[in-house]
Task: inverse folding
């Protein structure tokens, strides 16, 4: 477990059978930064080994993740951590409390070797083959979410994929766009669904309907395969994770708003999404832990932002604006 670096969208089952989703790539040496995703519940819709689970988040948003902190503080305070690197309280799983660690690529390889146990796993195998063939990649796709933890319900569960390595991710992004344009094996989200998505998000985010419609048009990593909704999430490899815990420390200053120009968007495909920016007084990056803002803005785009100004001290000293992080206000990134 310790020979491979923890990665965004890995999963962990704790000794008390809670299921946590790993977040990002900055993890203490004795544990894993992660948020609580599923809790044991006799009435839960998800299940494994006779145990039922319920989701803790009706939708993924920093406000919902912070709601889980209250549950953990009352019942499982060992899963809250005052992080001396980020200087905030985060949810985490200490290594001493790990019952099982789930790796997306290992799980997909296991299902390939043994064969599908149900029709959702069969679709997973077929979809991964379609994507690999179209993108010209091999052994770079994994499966996350409920299939990874073996708690999925074929009657309603989605397929959530990871793609590992920067070059493979970019090939897959283009391949998926082509597949959705062809609309044969992979179907795009319908205009009606996009409009429903826009109305739903308009209630949660400080963005206009027009902003959200623009975002809906640019979202590349969702679609349908044989009638099942799926998503794809780029993930860094061990070699691409260049910051070790403690290399830098993060110090929050104040809430800021402003406009700037995107100068680099290569790391916007990951979580957190990182945009290099120019012509901003002291800020060199706008960084989002809210997935809504990933893979959106192109080099040269003028953007408006609201978030927390952070000073980074250490090996890579600079200032950045953080959007969607734990303890941050309801910020945004949008086109000017």
Result:
């Amino acid at each position: 477990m310790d020979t491979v670096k923890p990665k965004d969208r890995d999963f962990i089952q704790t000794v008390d059978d809670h299921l946590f989703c790993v977040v990002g790539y900055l993890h203490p040496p004795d544990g894993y930064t992660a948020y609580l995703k599923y809790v044991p519940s006799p009435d839960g819709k998800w299940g494994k080994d006779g145990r039922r689970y319920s989701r803790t988040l009706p939708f993924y948003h920093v406000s919902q993740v912070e709601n889980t902190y209250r549950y953990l503080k009352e019942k499982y305070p060992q899963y809250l951590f005052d992080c001396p690197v980020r200087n905030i309280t985060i949810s985490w799983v200490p290594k001493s409390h790990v019952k099982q660690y789930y790796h997306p690529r290992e799980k997909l390889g296991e299902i390939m070797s043994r064969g599908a146990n149900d029709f959702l796993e069969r679709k997973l195998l077929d979809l991964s083959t379609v994507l690999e063939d179209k993108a010209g990649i091999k052994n770079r796709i994994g499966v996350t979410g409920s299939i990874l933890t073996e708690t999925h319900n074929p009657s309603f569960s989605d397929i959530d994929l990871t793609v590992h390595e920067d070059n493979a991710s970019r090939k897959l992004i283009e391949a998926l766009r082509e597949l959705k344009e062809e609309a044969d094996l992979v179907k795009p989200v319908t205009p009606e669904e996009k409009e429903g998505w826009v109305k739903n998000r308009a209630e949660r985010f400080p963005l206009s309907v027009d902003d959200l419609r623009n975002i809906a048009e640019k979202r590349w990593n969702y679609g349908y395969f044989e009638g099942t909704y799926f998503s794809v999430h780029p993930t860094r490899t061990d070699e691409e994770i260049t910051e070790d815990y403690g290399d830098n420390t993060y110090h929050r200053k104040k809430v800021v708003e402003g406009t700037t120009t995107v100068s680099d968007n290569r790391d916007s495909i990951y979580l957190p999404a990182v945009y290099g920016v120019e012509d901003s007084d002291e800020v060199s990056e706008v960084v989002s832990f809210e997935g809504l803002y990933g893979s959106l803005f192109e080099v040269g785009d003028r953007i408006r932002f609201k978030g927390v100004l952070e000073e980074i001290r250490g090996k890579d000293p600079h200032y950045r604006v953080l959007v969607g992080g734990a303890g941050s206000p309801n910020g945004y990134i949008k086109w000017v």
Remarks:
- The chain has a mean pLDDT of 95.
- The chain has seven helices and 19 strands.
- The helical segments are 62-75, 104-114, 119-135, 145-148, 166-182, 191-202, 209-218.
- Residues 11-102 form one domain.
